[in-house]
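Recall the central idea of this unit: under ordinary conditions, the amino acid sequence of a chain determines the structure it adopts. In this exercise we apply that idea directly, starting from the sequence alone.
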Amino acid sequence: MATAPTTPSPAEALATAKQVEELADKLSACADSIHARVMADIRSHGGEVPASEQAVARALLDAEIELRQRADRLYADAAACIVSSLGQPQHKLIQLTLDAAEKIKQITRIGDGITLVARLLGLAAAAATGQVAPVLAAVGALKTQLDVIAVRNPPAAPAAPAAAPTASAPAREG
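Accordingly, the structure predicted from this sequence is:
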């Protein structure tokens, strides 16, 4: 008895045009985070921005534009970008992009930020191919970079609870 070809379940990532559009939405949100971060960094100088930081800011703004362009292409070509049998749930792919947008706001090492943006661009490019292997490779690279950033930029430790008041003798009324 022959088995029917497997079709991706709707829960699998990038299995429908709507899911491709959802990824494009999240990549656009990452571009928003890049822009906000660069502008905040520029404003933090209050005046003259050192040349080396200007170069980094320009590179990140160029990457932001490229990420927006790739997201726009995903919107336009959503039906052609459907990936069959990716084997990953859509919510995990979307969570990766949400994590990336959040990390962009918190990164302290500029090299980590540049690499993260490159990984997002790679994911957008891979998704546009509609092929499983490039998408899986891009997802893996993005996840690895998020893990590296998590190690290098640990979340701030919660504030220590205030010391409990010590018991003292009740005050005497005069």
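DSSP finds five helices and no strands in the chain.
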